[in-house]
Design the sequence.
């Protein structure tokens, strides 16, 4: 199994930015999540692994309020996100990327990135729509978005449309858009999907650097085990909507239930 170098930084506080408590999600007779509990501490990179259908994306959809869990709690800094409507989640400090890109192909890289900051705008929807008194805020968002594109190596594409750009480049753009909202919790859903081996390595290093620079807590869903095990402080393993193991990457790689359910038994 290929790995990146292990992070040397460890979480130094016991404050849980994300605290998932006994979350169950049912669709009719189908149980997508069953009494799932885990914590992501402040400044931690938490890898979430499991076979297809394990419930990883369903969990992301519960945290971002796309789905309403059947029962349980999802706490962000002690506040139950399930008490907040979906449109307020970004304002509370949650941002995510998607397994399938959710960008605006006819908009430029700069415009796509700026879109990630609009939920935090002070002007409000109606004033923004009518362009009333938003010039200063627009300039600020534009400058912040350009700085993010520059940090992610995309500045030269700032005024290019997202359509027809390479997949790996668009993955970075989606990351820029998520970061534009200045989140405290960043959820990454399959960020390495479709990338080359070299791009995966670079992305792993970038996620770790951004965590340190911006003080992020990161929850990462990814099938590329080298990347997960290389950058995660903690790994949570799921199967059929249930937690089967939680621990350091070294512990998870040899955990019997994880080996059987996901990593595979050596020949």
Sequence:
């Amino acid at each position: 199994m290929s790995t990146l170098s292990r992070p040397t930084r460890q979480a130094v506080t016991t404050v849980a930015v994300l605290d998932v408590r006994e979350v169950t999600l049912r669709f009719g007779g189908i149980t997508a999540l069953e009494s799932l509990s885990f914590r992501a501490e402040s400044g931690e990179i938490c890898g979430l692994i499991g076979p297809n259908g394990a419930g990883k994306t369903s969990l992301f959809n519960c945290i971002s309020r796309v789905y309403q869990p059947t029962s349980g709690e999802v706490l962000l800094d002690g506040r139950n996100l399930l008490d907040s409507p979906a449109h307020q989640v970004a304002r509370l400090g949650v941002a995510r990327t998607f397994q399938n890109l959710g960008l605006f192909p006819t908009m430029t890289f700069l415009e796509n990135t700026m879109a990630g900051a609009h939920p935090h705008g002070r002007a409000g929807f109606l004033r923004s729509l009518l362009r009333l008194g938003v010039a200063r805020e627009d300039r600020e968002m534009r400058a912040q978005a350009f700085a993010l594109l520059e940090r992610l190596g995309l500045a030269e594409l700032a005024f290019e449309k997202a359509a027809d750009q390479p997949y790996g480049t668009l993955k970075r753009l989606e990351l820029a858009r998520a970061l534009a909202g200045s989140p405290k919790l960043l959820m990454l859903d399959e960020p390495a999907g479709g990338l080359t081996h070299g791009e995966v390595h670079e992305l792993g290093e970038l996620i770790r650097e951004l965590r340190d620079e911006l003080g992020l807590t990161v929850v990462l869903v990814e099938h590329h085990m080298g990347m997960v095990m290389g950058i995660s402080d903690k790994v949570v393993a799921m199967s059929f909507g249930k937690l089967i193991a939680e621990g350091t990457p070294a512990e998870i790689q040899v955990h019997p239930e994880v080996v059987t359910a996901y990593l595979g038994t050596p020949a």
Summary: The chain has a mean pLDDT of 87. The chain has ten helices and ten strands.
